[in-house]
Structure formats: C-alpha cells, structure tokens
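>> received
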Amino acid sequence: MFVAGLALLGPLGAEAQEFGDIEDFLELPGVCESGPITFGPGVDCAVAIRDDVDLDDIWFVGFVDGNDQLGGQECSVAADGVPGLVEDRPAVWCRDLGKGEFFDGIVDGQLEGPWETASAFEYEIEDLRGNFWWFNGPHLLAGGRPLAITDVPDLDLDGLWLRFVERRTGEVALDLPAASAAQVVDPAIDELGGIVSYRWQPELDPGSYRLWFCEGDSPETCALLPGGHHVQVHDLEFLELVPGHNVIDAERINVVFFGSGMEALAHVEGYGSVEETARTMLGWDGPVSTYLTAFEGEDGSVDGRVRWGPFATEPMASDRHRFNLWYAPQPLDDIDTLFQSVGDPLLHAGFDLPNVHAVLLQGDGRLGRSDARLASLADREFPETANELVFGNTRMNLEAFDLTNATQVLTHEWGHALFGLRDEYAFNPFGTDGIGYGDPNCLRTLDEAETLYGDLFGIVDPFAETVLAQLAELGRDPDQEFGFDLIEATRIEPTPGGCYGDPEDPAVYRPNISSAMNETSPVFGAVSRRQMEAVLGLFSGRADHRGLDGVAIACTGDDDSTSCGIEIPAFVDGPDAGFTIDGEACGAGVGGGDGPTVVTCELDAAAAAVEIGDGGEVRTLTVEREIVETTTSTTTAGPTEGDDETAARTTATTLDDSDGSGSTRLIAGVALVGAGAAVFAVLAMLSRRPRSASR
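>> returned
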C-alpha cells in the first residue's frame, strides 16, 4: 500500500545524509503539459535535476497539492529526461497529476523530500461534469479496439472535431470529424435507457497522444475545448516470455505482461526490462529465497523472507502447461488502460488471443497498490467451458526496494483475476464499509460452509508440506518465516472474521486461518485450491493436429525396407485418424505427450518415394537411402556396456517432393536436431534393427 507523504528512498543500509534546500537538487520552476485538463486524464509535469546530484540520493519525491484539494502521490526519477518536458537530462517526473479529481482552477504543484516543501510547477483543471467530453471509454487503440465515448444519447456531433496531438512533441497528428462515429447501443443495458456508445477508429501510428475536442466548421478555424484526454496507439506485439513454452493454438490461458513507468526502476537492483522482471515475478524456477536487496542488521545478519510466485505455487506449478506467457515490449502510458470492468465488451478487443489475462507492471509509484478485477465466476454457478469465462486483469505496483515481495503479491492477485477468490483480510484496504462475501472462501454462515465444502473439513492442502520442505532445504525456520504453524493454519476449518470484516466476526467465515488470499502464507488451502483446479481444468493445455506442416518427417531405407519417423510437438495431438504410409495405417489414434512424440511408419519393401497422409492431406516424400557414419553430427544413443558398436548416424540431406515442385522441403538426419532430433534418433535405431531369417 502507498502512504502519502515523505517518499524519498536511498540505498538500504546507507548512512543518513544531510540535505540542503530543494534548490540544491532541482532546477525550479518545472514545466507541465499545456492546456487545461478535465476529470479523468491527469497531467504530466517534470523538474530538471541539477548536474551534480547523485540519482541514488533522490529516487522518489512526493507531490502534494498546495491548494489542499488533491491527494499526494509519488513522482519518480527519469534518468534520461522526459520527452517534451525536460530533454536529455535527469528529471523528477510527476505523471497523471490531478487524475480523476473534481476541481476548478490553477493547481500549485509542490514537491516534498528531505528538504522543505516548495512550489515546483502549476497546471489547470477545469471541472466539466455533465458534458459529453468526459472521455470514459477505452483509450488503448489497437487492432479491433476503437476509441469510445459512452452514456451520451442523442449527442449532436456536427461541428465537432477530434484533435489528436502527439503527447511529447505537441504536434497535431490528426483531426477527425466527430460525425464519422459509429453509434452503438448495448442491448444488455438498452432497457436502462438506451446507453449509446460513440466509436471511432482513427488512423494513427503507435505512440501516445492527447485528445482534444475542437468546435468549429473546420480544423483550421475550430476552438479547442478543455480536455486533453490521453490516448495510446499500441501495436500489441506479443513476444514469448519463456522461450519454447508457448503452444500458440493450444487451449490455454494467455497471460500478457505490459510495463508502465518501468524506467523509474532501471537503476534498482533486481529490476530490468518488462520480460526480465516478469520472469522473476512468476517464480518459474521455484521460490525466491532472499530479498534482492537485503536488509542488513547491526550485527551484520541479513533478514530476508522466501516468496512464492504463481508458478512456484500449487496448483499453478503443476499446471503451467495450461498457460501461454507473453510480454508486450511497447510500454503503456496510462495505468487504467486495461482495467475496465470485466463485463466491458471492449476489454480485450484487438488482442487476437483467446482467454486473455493482462498484467500491468507499474514502476513509478502512480498506482500506489496492486489490485485485480475478479474473474466472471458467479457464486454457485461454474462455467462448463472456457468460453463462458472472462478473466479480470491485474495491476502490480512494483516496490522500489523489493521485487521479491511482488512475486507473492502477483500470486495473490491471480487468485482474484483468474479464479474469482475473495480477499480474506481482517481489514478493508479500500476504506469502504461492508464484508466482501463470495464463494468459495467468504461465506455468511457455518451452514453455507458445510454445504459448499463440508467434505473438505480437516483437510490440509499438500502444498503446505511442500513449502515446509522447501524452507528446510533453504535453511529457513518456518516459525520465523510465518509466525504460526503452517499445517494447522492451513487445515480446513471454517474460521470467523476477515473478508474485510473484523477479526473473529461471525458475520463471515473463511475456510482456514491462513491463506494466500490474506497474504500470510503462500498456501491457498484445499477449498480455494479446488476452485482453482476447476478453472484450470477448463483448459486442456493442448492443441489439435496442425496438419503435415506442423510435424517433422524424415524417411530412410535400404534394399529391403523403408522407415519414416513423424515427430508431433509437445502438447499437440496427432490426427484423429492417425497417419498412413502408402495408404496403410500407422500410428492410429496418436496423441502428442508432454514432450515430442515420434510415430514410426514402416514398409517391408524398398522405396524411392512414399506417400504420408494424416486423414486429409497426402504428401509424397523422397526417401534417403544411404546410411553412412560421419563425425559432424551428434551421437543420439551411446553403446551399452560390452557393446562397442557406435550409434548410427545419417548425413544431413534435403528432400524435395517427388514431383520436383520443391513446395515442401523436409530435412532428414542431423538437420532435424532441435525440431526433429527424436525422429533422427528413431530412424538411426531402425537402420540397425535385426532382420528376419528370410533375409
């Protein structure tokens, strides 16, 4: 959670430093984006840092409103400057100031640190509540995602223009007539009064823009109206996060990581690019055993705690094949971009991926705390197919001093966004009243608990034993790690209190004392785990047969026989009808396993070419007949004890279709190493198999 006020941090364990006046660090006054803003978008301001200041001494600075109207927030250090505001030199960067605030007039922007609070810049907010240019639609434009304004029926668009200005240069990129909008009425809420959505798809290059409404007969003569809403055009290029893991067509949850403000953490140990930070947070290689930046005590001891990311935690650790993991190299500007309601039909428009869950890694303090939207799981009604489920998105506030802690926070947020689990805190972090009821982990009565999970009473999630074993291997004391008996705290026994209610309040019951949903341990517990496993069970993690283009094939032969090997990639099923060779069935009902599966097809005759089929397509392949030894390839099978025969090898040969078209090119032998090494190994063994007596 973010606490407003003094937010300057330095290297942990460093000696206290005496600071002078604010002018000793910053060159005042700073600058802000131009034009009055309205409710919603916020404004960016920046102040140059003096040349002789060490950036490690000024990591974060707090912004406060001198008018006592707006809340405080963190600003960050931009080591390379802020395009359009402070060029080519370090600066304190305060982003989205005034975002979501109702206020009229000039704001006295002040900065506070280990110096006195001092005025640093000014910007203007104009309260336009009730006017249509409250821009409240999706503001990420990509693919099928339009620009949208809603809740404004019967709007007269004549004489209005949408002016898009490049956010960093101030240059006009496009003037779009508002009358070009497509008007859409959402049938789901039509009975509430015919809510109209006005949608545009401007042709803009990827980048960040401010949208102004301009009133007049033409772009040359129109007058700008207050607004300045932020719009970003994103190319939504998704790259693989864990090399070799994704299966694009598989029935999986597609997790996409985005970054925002990550440049503020570039000089902090442990942080890196979006993909590097995301891989650390996932816990792909197991729990992280210490803080990346450790706390050193007076006696020289280091105090750290173990953290479990999602894929170090059950049941995700055992079901990682049900996920595809991606990252977007282009950053997001606005921290609300992907955080619409789960019911918003535009939530994932343009992603071109099914079953999307987006994670925003936010690095410059604007977010304040991590949060997530709940998945669309209705209480007592579980979806029968993956298509009936919509995931919420997650926003991660990355702490400048500890990336390790964020790994377990991400696990907690996935409990909400992917599995519909409720918070079990004995306090309300949002400052609102009321208990957060919801299945399966925040129920109203003991009778409800008995009905929903009475069969699990007394059960301990076996992952608790795994956690204790991991701590023992790391030389950590569980009592020091958690402060309670993990086994007993995880045992299923309806426990009063929590779920935003007071401790021990019998108005609500959670399944066990400790859970990943109140962040006191990494163990979800048997009740929540059952729901998680049910959601994961909607996704097979597998892909259907992709045709002959999706497999590796190699054929070899001699004067008496012909053998072909067909390699099916991991988590890809073979064709329902199996494969055929020259019309004869081989490998019927084939399914790819967790690793590549090789199907062998054999003919008891020599052949110069064979036809391989998969129940649909048939392809003619030439057969490589010469088997020779070579020292340039990798040995695929070593000799057994007492056997001095070396493993057979084949030369690398390119095979063309027998019709000479060259439309299909397959590599036999060593050229299959990587994509088809198993095929080569099988064919090598087949070339040495015993012959029948009739030979």
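>> The chain is about 10% helix and 25% strand.
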